[in-house]
Amino acid sequence: MTRPLVLHPDRLLPADADTRAVARRLLASIEHLPIVSPHGHTDPQWFADNAPFDDPAQLLITPDHYVLRMLYSLGVSLPQLGVRPQSDADGEQAGGTAVDSREIWRIFAEHYHVFRGTPSRLWLDWVFAEVFGLQVQLEAGTADHYFDVISARLGEPAFRPRALFDRFRIEVLATTESPLDDLRHHRALRTSGWPGRIITAFRPDPVVDPQYPGFRDNLTELSRVSGCDCRSYPEYLEALRQRRAYFASLGATSTDHGHPTAATAHLEFATARALFQRVTQAQVSAQDAELFRAHMLTVMAGMSLADGLVMQIHPGSWRNHNPQLFTRFGRDKGADIPMRTDYVAALKPLLDLYGNEAALTLIVFTLDESTYARELAPLAGHYPALKLGPAWWFHDSPEGMRRFRRQTTETAGFYNTVGFNDDTRAFCSIPARHDVARRIDCGYLASLVTEHQLGESEAADLAVELTYELAKRAYRL
Amino acid sequence: MTRPLVLHPDRLLPADADTRAVARRLLASIEHLPIVSPHGHTDPQWFADNAPFDDPAQLLITPDHYVLRMLYSLGVSLPQLGVRPQSDADGEQAGGTAVDSREIWRIFAEHYHVFRGTPSRLWLDWVFAEVFGLQVQLEAGTADHYFDVISARLGEPAFRPRALFDRFRIEVLATTESPLDDLRHHRALRTSGWPGRIITAFRPDPVVDPQYPGFRDNLTELSRVSGCDCRSYPEYLEALRQRRAYFASLGATSTDHGHPTAATAHLEFATARALFQRVTQAQVSAQDAELFRAHMLTVMAGMSLADGLVMQIHPGSWRNHNPQLFTRFGRDKGADIPMRTDYVAALKPLLDLYGNEAALTLIVFTLDESTYARELAPLAGHYPALKLGPAWWFHDSPEGMRRFRRQTTETAGFYNTVGFNDDTRAFCSIPARHDVARRIDCGYLASLVTEHQLGESEAADLAVELTYELAKRAYRL
Amino acid sequence: MTRPLVLHPDRLLPADADTRAVARRLLASIEHLPIVSPHGHTDPQWFADNAPFDDPAQLLITPDHYVLRMLYSLGVSLPQLGVRPQSDADGEQAGGTAVDSREIWRIFAEHYHVFRGTPSRLWLDWVFAEVFGLQVQLEAGTADHYFDVISARLGEPAFRPRALFDRFRIEVLATTESPLDDLRHHRALRTSGWPGRIITAFRPDPVVDPQYPGFRDNLTELSRVSGCDCRSYPEYLEALRQRRAYFASLGATSTDHGHPTAATAHLEFATARALFQRVTQAQVSAQDAELFRAHMLTVMAGMSLADGLVMQIHPGSWRNHNPQLFTRFGRDKGADIPMRTDYVAALKPLLDLYGNEAALTLIVFTLDESTYARELAPLAGHYPALKLGPAWWFHDSPEGMRRFRRQTTETAGFYNTVGFNDDTRAFCSIPARHDVARRIDCGYLASLVTEHQLGESEAADLAVELTYELAKRAYRL
Prior knowledge:
Three copies of one chain form a homotrimer.
Chain A: H1 17-30, E1 35-37, H2 44-49, H3 56-60, H4 65-73, H5 101-110, H6 119-131, H7 143-154, H8 161-167, E2 170-174, H9 184-190, E3 198-199, H10 205-208, H11 215-226, H12 233-249, E4 254-257, H13 269-279, H14 286-307, E5 310-313, E6 317-318, H15 323-329, E7 337-338, H16 348-354, E8 362-364, H17 370-380, E9 386-388, H18 398-412, H19 430-450, H20 456-474
Parallel strand pairs in A: 1-2, 2-3, 4-5, 5-8, 8-9
Antiparallel strand pairs in A: 6-7
Helix pairs in contact in A: 1-19, 1-20, 11-12, 13-14, 14-16, 17-18, 18-19, 19-20
């Protein structure tokens, strides 16, 4: 016996009836605003080529690290979910057993109950109901029905990337590329005649982090694409400036920096040049690598002040914590773990130089919620250059967003925040994620109204700010 | 004028009327499930001998470190609560003043209001009302009434340990013993004909922690009970394997490790043997002690993978923080203080070896709630071997449990948790503690239903899982 | 079109109707209790001279670091808010542009919406409505109306400091002075015939912190005011004892210590004397400075045990984090940032000596909320000497207070807390801040009643304790 799949119109709104009534009115006033997605990881090729998406498993399961991590933790192997061992990139399945997409989907369906209480459940149910029109819940008994319906839909023109982009009412969507990327898909989009606004963002980790896989080769490639000789520190900086300008010419308004810590440093030129020489050798010490990353954050802030690109820092993830899994399957398989992160001392060298510059926008994120009230809200509530990024990754969830608002608003206010980021590779989930954020924000605002901290018209103004205006202003869109 | 003592049927359920109604239905469906108590510190002799419990003060006050700590913090001396100085073990009272049980009880009653808002109040009121049938609140004016009623009851057959065990509907109760324990009471229980299921758990701290009082004597005793010569590292390991097997033969399904930190290490055999030689000398450095504990956690995980005992780690308590109190009165008098605890780096050596083993169950606890969302939920939501223990000790409380659910569920889900532990020496409070946990869990589930994140039938399934099934599966009961 | 300014009678009370009804009754029973303000930073000269306050901007904007920090973070310069560069102390405005008070007020009014969701908004609206009788909300269009009304009121006798003190029903108000202060205003108040109780508190940071600006000159001045030769460590201690006694003679019942960390130390006399010699030289190492501060906290605890002054520790603020701002504008301009703070190891040397002394009262505060449940509640719930100060500074806010209660009560209880501190320089906001605290506390107590953890009469008792009695007892008023 199947159970109906219904997205309740009051989902995620506060339980209290009076507060819920306010939240409903606020939501009604903003739920049809277009989506501004200033930071994420979708593939620009989807929109450039506008080819149909793959089958259901390849679209919704295999690339979703939230799904992989949970199922893996409960005993499902990655090959059962379509993830191939790296040594097996020619197409054979691990152990010689082919796992086809329908089989992957069935395993997923059998385990779907383990997502109860998680945001993955919210996002996926939204996609099932709103994108694919499914009307029963996913479970073992409905696995084949789901697979058949989604497969069929993916063949229809209305489910191609550009059609979904339009249907999702996305006003602007930023992807994230390496400085080594030639941005061919972004160029193609510019000349395609299709009016969808898809822009890039500059993520220089591969050429500023000496511990990034292939760092030295990446510098060689940076020399090639920029025409600068990146064995020289000044030319390396010039190459970065050039690539930033090239990204900006294809719509980029921001950079993004995914460092293990938030450390920044300010080195004299000669010291920096000598450090650059050391970190471009074959053997690099952990201290030198950290110092170079720290120095480059400050350098990048200086470049942002000059060229106007908004700077984002996403620190605090211990990438690839599970070496067995990393060796066998590679990056981004759900084995990244947050770490305790300091901001007050770490950001000081950068802030000492640029913190008072209102012309610079530095958006800081965290995976360490203990820093919301203690460090980040006080910093953002003082430094003109600093803004708070929204609840990120593990905290991009109803309770995570509530903690973000409750722990930052009283010190940083709303106007030092920058709206929502979906930050996802999972294109179909973008409107689902914005839907969750809008509901939680309206619930939070409604609670301020019910407690008579805000008038309802003020809350309505703020709902528009949090949904739309703050992101556009902060990211200069 | 006395005030009635009433346990309200809606106690601890959410205030919102709709949510409360759902919570009530969920609670009704699970409140009569038997108690599974997989981790605790009751005395097996109680059940082996089935002698009457001592008087009210000796049963409910003197051994309860939650009660002692609070009263001590507010100026009551430990001897006033029946705790004797260690030098005074022959029975004299401190300062020569005998404090009899009725007097202890009166002091307790006069101060009972200081427990307002604490879980001790909830547990004690439950015990007073449900176990002893008291109908007025405890205060100075009812102290003697309480003392008389409880004293009388304790003399009745229905209040002997086995009768209470049955009345509490305990399906299985684990105690915790040292490897040096001969488990005589557990053996006696096995041959007693009484069907109550009481099992042991293996807590090797006295023989794996070089800073444990009497460590070297403990190794001598371990040699004696095992027949291995524990001056040799290989024989020491063999002795531990033997004792684990002996514990398992008397029902143990788990081990427990109470280290100051969560540090683990993986040492080569020769290095470990040399370290063992150092830590078994009279003088041990703090670094060697920490490294040996860290190494032994990894060794124990390997043994658990081999023999199937579920492994529990309870780190992060600074034991005996108050040296004056410790010198005078000894351990477990309410002077243990939590510390900031790292898991991400600390557990990595162990996880690198065994984290991907679905056949291993490693249950991790914390006293540092900042790690719930940042470290523990991400780790448990990825590694197949890792599960999250419930809110522990200072956090075994309504708000503590709510924080646990709100901060772990979205990342780890429900199915990487293991149900409730009462973890208590206070036998009569066991059902009270499970009652609190069931109510808080039903309230949490109800809030997910009211916010339309879960259907009510899903919540009902989960209520059974959280109350009963998860603990049985995780602890292999 | 203006919007009415209304302080809703239910503001800040829980949204749930049943809980709100309980909270309302609790609030009605305590809202008219007098204000006990045992810790703050108002200027005793106001009350000694009883001169009219300055204009609206000088009273309400320029000295309020909460207001400055938020407006500065959003691009308003400090001179626009009436803060003069230090080099400009002769009265010229920065850049030669004079900013008059009306202009400051207009800038403030234009930006007033940025305080939505912050406690500044709550406090300011209360002051506007209750103190000045304003009936429309502050915004650009009402800026001049506000300026005119407040300016006019400040000229009236009813708005002089003593009149407001009486109108605010303040029973006792503590200010905070340096040991070098001659307390002339406090002396004047004693002989003024005005019955308002205004007392001092002893804040020795300028003479116990070797990194305090002017430390060596301060010791010279301490020698002068005490008649002791403070180049000698024993005489330095004697000088401190003398000044404490002098402060106590003018009503002081407490000391206050604003250290960067909570570190304490216990040094032998000879070691301490040698350290004192080092830290009184021109060059002081950071380690010596920290050790001396740590040692002096323990020394001060000993003096408190002797003379009965209650000791307060306010650690964990990185003062003057923004060097550009500090150099240009000086201290207390909203650039202090909280830091992660340890208590368990840090306080141990002091607690080892004095923690078991019920005659000592040591009130500890924090800016690091992760320590509430993990460190401070367990410490306060054990050590007789230790009490928990209320939610402080960035956490003196509705959500901050809720976190304080929810994270400390279950372990420390209510009776190890000390009531509310307004801790403010902003005199008019004192009743506003107490109003917020009373409402949040009544709401918290009401939630315990609605969840049947407390009877309503118990909650009513506790409301009086939290509002009035605990502060009077803890601060020995």
